[in-house]
Amino acid sequence: MSPASPFRWGLWGALVTLHLLATLRPPEVLAPAVGGAIYAPLMLFQAVGLPVFGRAESGGWSHPSWLGWALVAVLWAAVWWGVAWLLSRLISSMSRASLGTWH
């Protein structure tokens, strides 16, 4: 497969879409994981000194800033690209191995 094959783009698009759908309307069982997928990276970025949180209301969690949302989106897009790359490599090598056994 080429470095950016249609299969990899399709797989990446599916993974990002599923993540986006889970973030926008998470089922109750996934809500803690979705919250962690957003706030865990933000806390790491904040530790580096980036202004990733907006102003917090009294006694509540502060919401992500525009920079925070952008960094989280880029981070997860990169993670899912890596997963899509790995899966496409594994499937490609498995298909080549299976073709080699027919000879």
Structural features, described:
With 103 residues, the chain is mainly alpha-helical. The protein is built from 3 helices and no strands. α2 crosses α3. The two termini are 21 Å apart.
pLDDT below 50 for ≥5 consecutive residues: which ranges? Answer: none
- Average pLDDT: 85
Give the helix/strand class.
Answer: mainly alpha
Helix content: over 70%
| Radius of gyration (Å) | 18 Å
Q: What is the total tally of β strands?
A: 0
Write the H/E string, N to C. HHH
Instruction: Report on the biggest sheet.
Output: none
Count helical runs: 3
Shape from CA axes? elongated
User: Separation of termini?
Assistant: 21 Å
Estimate what percentage of residues fall within beta strands: under 5%
Short characterization:
This protein has 103 residues and is mostly helical. Helices cover 71% and strands 0% of the residues. Helix 1 crosses helix 3 and helix 2 crosses helix 3 (66-101).
Spell out the key features of this protein.
about 100 residues, mainly alpha, elongated
